[in-house]
Structures are given as structure tokens and as C-alpha cells.
Design goal:
single chain; 207 residues; alpha+beta; Jelly Rolls; 2 domains; 6-stranded antiparallel beta sheet; 34% strand
Length: 207
Amino acid sequence: MKCDKCGFENKNNAKFCTKCGSSLTVKSSKPANSQSNNFKYIVIALVAIIIVLGGLIGFLVMGGPLDLTQVSNDTQQAIPSQATQSPASSGGDEDVSTQSVSSTEVVDEKSWESIGSYSGSGSGSQTISVPAGKIMVKLSAYPIKNYATNHLYVTGSNGESGGVDWGSKSAVETRSDSFTYTSSSEEVFTIDFYETVNWQVEFFRYQ
């Protein structure tokens, strides 16, 4: 190892110069490494500065930060507008389902409405013309006491009939009956009553 002061060549493992006694030290390569590391740090810093400047320029060009709340509101408003599209712009399956829902909303507003009421007393018969449709007949009567043949019968030309009667041992009280039928044409009914205090026959049509 060469002495820096006197230039004497010493052994490689010598710590002091044999000639002048100066301390022998190995030159460190750290400064070179330090300069290399410093260069890397400078490059990294420059890259970071470029990135920051790029973001700042983008911020200024775009006119400020993106408002996430506004984006969320716009998205929510856009979704219902698509959901409320008319069935005509959708597929065939959606048309079918829409028609199905509409059909279930149809409410039957029909009801039984009176088309004739007849009453009387005593004995006899009466003929009534009843129009076509779904018909309901209600009848009731109260008999004269102590008779076994008291009755009220209602018979139609279509074979439909109903009625009440009493036997010799029946309680003297009001009795009632009813029946329904459907006819596509007008029917004729005969009301036959015998020994009654009062009777009543009512005709109703479902309409």
C-alpha cells in the first residue's frame, strides 16, 4: 500500500507507513455511491413534480373537481326515465305482462236489479213476461188458517219453477222460496196462488 505522504510502498495489510509512520487508510468509494444516489433522488423528485404539474393543469382545464353528488343525482334521475318507457318501445314479453295486469284491474260492477214485483191475496193466477238474461225469482206467502191446500207456485215456460205450500198440520206462517236461471230469450211465468192472506213475487236481473 502506497503512503500518501512519502510515497513509500508498504505491505497491503499495513496500517502505518514503515518509512514515515503516517496512517495508511483505504480510499472509500462512498462519495461516488453518494453521488449516484443523489442523482436518483433528483430524478424521482423531477418525476413527482411533473405529475403534480400535470394534475394541476388538468384541474384548471376541466374547471374544478368532479362533483360526485351531482353524478349520483343524475344517475338516479336517468334510471326512472328508462323504467317508464312506453310498452311500445319494449319487447313483446313486456307487452303481454302489461296487458295481463290491466285485465286483472277490471272490476265487475254488475248487480241484481229489480225488473218486476207482483203481490196479491186470495186465490187465482197471473201471467208475467220476463226478459232474457240471468234472472232470480223470490217469492213468499202467508196462508189462510185451517186449510191444507194453501199454496203459491211460480212456473216458467222454460221449465223453471219454485213455490211454497202448507199441509193440514203445518204451522200457519210465512214461507219463502227463490231460484235463478239464465235464458237467451224472453220467458213467460205463471203465478198460481190459492187461499192466501197475502203473497209476493219479485223478479231480478243481473246487470
